[in-house]
Amino acid sequence: MNKTIVFGASGQLGQCFKKLAADANLDFFIFPAEGEADILDTAALEKLFAAHQPVYAVNCAAYTAVDKAEDDPETALKVNKTGVENLSRLCSKHDTTLIHISTDFVFKGDVSSPLKESDAAKPISVYGQTKLDGEKVIPILLDNYFIIRTGWLYAEFANNFVKTMLKLGAERDELKVIADQVGTPTYGIDLAGFIIHIIKTDSTAYGIYHYSNEGVASWYDFSKAIFELSGTDVKVIPIPTSEYKTRAVRPAYSVMDKTKVKQTFGLQIPYWRDSLAICIGKLKQQNQVL
Ligand SMILES: NC(=O)c1ccc[n+]([C@@H]2O[C@H](COP(=O)([O-])OP(=O)(O)OC[C@H]3O[C@@H](n4cnc5c(N)ncnc54)[C@H](OP(=O)(O)O)[C@@H]3O)[C@@H](O)[C@H]2O)c1
């Protein structure tokens, strides 16, 4: 079977792969222990590739602290560009297909219709710029790659907006949430499932793809749905971005056009609220909804 190494396996998306691999007995996945798979450690990477000769490398590893990146651009660039460059070189050497995860933050978000793969990327944050720099090194070094841009990722694992809202909702009677930034919440399990489909079908439809769940929501809509589905009684007040200052600027519009991914892979993508209900159900089972 198509041996696949997952980098960043202990992060949010990495844990989605672990969960799907465990549930379906997918024994072609290799989840290296932390320390064995630092994408900045070329010697460790060489050892891993030589030992396993993977058919696929899935890169979930990234510097994802969007606000912190504004004050530490060097580290963000190292992980998000040099790390990707290291992986690409090894993939080229070992004839491994790279499946790399990127972000809606490569766009400025100053549009009002869904973003296509062919639209010009114009990052407005250090994180977005370093992720774009990482995307750009891949085609220079490799022909067999998939770059999958996603946005607003959440799952029952690690820290994310859903878990933050549930925690705040349990502590407070009232919350203010931004209502003038729109995108589409994306369930990590759905995204990991799509990538497993690429691997299982040996797809050679290489290139850049946009993948999120279906539909459109503001952070306000997303939070309201989280509270409705979890049965949390909290008043949510919509506010403009100007009332919630963050170190990094976020795109106002992040909705992605998924025509290419749906047509190429014959996918039916779940609607964001349906997937959110599944995730909240899992969190309830784990007693993570108070
Ligand atoms: N989260 C979102 O809303 C979102 C939206 C769009 C796109 N994405 C992209 O989706 C991908 C997965 O994101 P995520 O939410 O799963 O992020 P995450 O939870 O922050 O996971 C990233 C993982 O990468 C690891 N990592 C950092 N530096 C590394 C290095 N030098 N070598 C190996 N591993 C390293 C981190 O380990 P430590 O924790 O130990 O540093 C962490 O386990 C990323 O490419 C991200 O840019 C995320």
Can you characterise this structure?
The structure is a single chain. The chain is of the alpha/beta class. The protein has one domain (4-285): Rossmann fold (3-Layer(aba) Sandwich). 43% of the residues lie in helices and 16% in strands. The chain has helices at 12-23, 42-52, 66-71, 73-94, 126-141, 161-171, 188-200, 219-230, 259-265, 272-285, and strands spanning 4-7, 29-30, 56-59, 97-103, 145-150, 153-154, 174-178, 182-183, 186-187, 207-210, 217-218, 235-239. A 6-stranded parallel β-sheet has the order 2-1-3-4-5-10, sandwiched between helices. A two-stranded parallel ribbon has the order 6-9. It has a two-stranded parallel sheet with strand order 7-12. Helix 1 (12-23) crosses helix 7 (188-200) and helix 8 crosses helix 10. The chain is globular and about 55 Å long. The mean pLDDT is 96. Bound molecules: NADP nicotinamide-adenine-dinucleotide phosphate. NADP nicotinamide-adenine-dinucleotide phosphate (NAP) binds at residues 7-8, 10-14, 37-40, 60-64, 79, 83, 101, 103, 131, 150-153, 158.
What attributes characterize this protein structure?
10 helices, binds NADP nicotinamide-adenine-dinucleotide phosphate, alpha/beta, Rossmann fold, 290 residues
Assembly classification? single chain
What class, by secondary structure content? Answer: alpha/beta
Fill in the CATH topology: Rossmann fold
**Helix/strand order, N-terminal first:** EHEHEHHEHEEHEEEHEEHEHH
The CATH homologous superfamily name equals NAD(P)-binding Rossmann-like Domain
Strand content: 15-25%
Number of helices: 10
Beginning-to-end CA distance, first to last residue: 42 Å
**Helical fraction:** 40-55%
The CATH C-level name is Alpha Beta
Shape: globular
The overall pLDDT average reads: 96
- CATH architecture level-2 label: 3-Layer(aba) Sandwich
